[in-house]
Amino acid sequence: MKPFRYLVPVTLLGLAEADLSGCGRSLTFQHTNLFQFGQIQFSFSACTYDSTIGGYRAGVANFNTVDGSAWNVVKAYHAATDGSDELSPYDSWLQDPTQFSGSSRSSGFCSAWKKAANNPDFLTAQATVFSSKYLKPTQSAIDKQGLSLGISEALMYDTAITNGVGSSQGSLGWLIANTNKQVLTDISGHSGNTLTVNGFDVDEIAWVQLFLTQRSAYSSATATAASTKSFRYMVTNILAAIGDIPMLTVNEA
C-alpha cells in the first residue's frame, strides 16, 4: 500500500478540483466496480442468483430480476433485435418473476445473459438502462445538493450503485437527507466550495465527511462497508494534502 499512499496527494487533489468526467469518471467506475464485482472493469456478462433477493443479479450495475431493472435491459435489447434473441424465452418470467418462482421458467437465464453479452446491441442496452437508472438520478442529486468536487460526485455515484438512488432507508436520497439534518451551524473548511444547507454555509469536504458518517452508520454489507472505508481514506488524505490534518494509512482510515 505504501507506493499508492505517496501518490494520494496528486491523484486525489485532481479529483477534488475537477468534475466527474473523462479520467475522473473512469477512475470512479473502477473504484465502484472493484468493491461491487471484485474487478475494475465493467462486467456486462456477470450473472448470478442472489438468495437474499430471491432473484438474479446481472450486468454492469447488478441489474436484478426482482425490481424490473433486468427486464428494462432486455426490453431495450429487444428493440434492437425485433424481440427475437437469446433472452426472448424469458420475457414472461422477467415481467413477473414471482409468477414462476421456483419453477423451471428461469432455467438457463444466466447462460442466455452471458451469450447475449457477446452482442454489441446488448451492451448498448445495458449502458442505456445504467444511465437512466443510476447516472442521471445521481447527477440530479449532485446538482440539487450543490456538490462540485470530483470526490463528492464519485461518492454519490458509488452510494447510488451500492445502496440505490431513491429515498428509501439507506438509499442515496435518504442518506443525503439524514446528512443535511446534521447541519445545525456553519462549518468551515478549505475545499474551495461552500454549500448552503438549512441556511448555513458548509464546506463541501466537511459535508462529505458528515455523509460518510451517515453511510458508515447504515452500512452492513461487507462490500458497502469496505467501499465506505475506502472513500473515508481518500477524503482524509485530500484534507492532508491541503494541509488540514495529518495523512493516514488505509488501515487508519
Automatic annotation (TrEMBL):
Top-level taxon of the source organism: Eukaryota
Gene Ontology MF annotations: chitosanase activity
Gene3D superfamilies, per the entry: Chitosanase, subunit A, domain 1, Chitosanase, subunit A, domain 2
Pfam family, one: Glyco_hydro_46
GO CC, alphabetical: extracellular region
Alphabetical keyword list: Signal
GO biological process, one term: carbohydrate metabolic process
InterPro entries (UniProt xref): Glyco_hydro_46, Glyco_hydro_46_N, Lysozyme-like_dom_sf
Range of residues in the leader sequence: 1-18
Protein name as it appears in the record: Chitosanase
Source organism: Coemansia javaensis
